[in-house]
Amino acid sequence: MNRRKIGAAAALVLSAALVLTGCSGGGGSDLAKQWQENSDKGYVSGDGTSASFAPSERTDPVEFSGEVENGDTFSSEDIRGQVTVVNFWYAGCPPCRAEAPDLVAAYDEFAPKGVAFIGVNTRDQSAQAQQFAEEFGVEYPSIMDMPGGRSVQRAFAGQVPLNAVPTTLVLDAEGRVAHRVLGQLAGESQLRTLIEETLAETGDGAGASADKQ
Fold first, then answer.
1. What are the angstrom distances between the C-alpha of 114 and each of 13, 26, 78, 108, 173?
2. DSSP at 67
3. By 3-state DSSP, what share of the chain in percent is helix, strand and coil, each rounded to 5?
4. Which domains does the chain have, with CATH numbers?
5. Residues 117-132 pLDDT 10s
6. Is the pTM of this model over 0.85?
């Protein structure tokens, strides 16, 4: 009896480890599978796991487009050649609300230096997204990537588990994922570091540092 209990406990531990591995950013095929399996579930709050990818390890540029809150269309072609922050969120997600001031602060600092910011709203209607933007002072647009279409989430399916919100990505100037944070940002300083590291690859980092002094 004791052996059976021990064996069952070990199996549970192994099962939990496999689940965590799948949610914390394993291979692209695992993330794509999770995207399919979780397409109708509630949000999965990430644990803040951060991953960085050397230029030689990055996947192809991610191409995406969609309609933003005011009805305009946003495309990845609009920001090609720019380091870009992509944030997956929705208004009722507590960690999304908690990290909003950090994103706004990073936007205020880096947008004048040529860094692009785009949100991807995974659940709300336009009115909710606009209310959120007004409440937190968010000036950059968000693509309304609603259930049923989810074209932007599909485009990033090999990089981001579906419903792992918030998730923040930093894309390099070629549109490839350079950094990924699953879950709430640790703070503005974390995002600043990731942006500056990516800018430095293009030779823009020195200018950004000089502007701060």
1. 46, 31, 13, 11, 11
2. E
3. 45, 20, 35
4. 28-212 (3.40.30.10)
5. 999 999 999 999 999 9
6. no
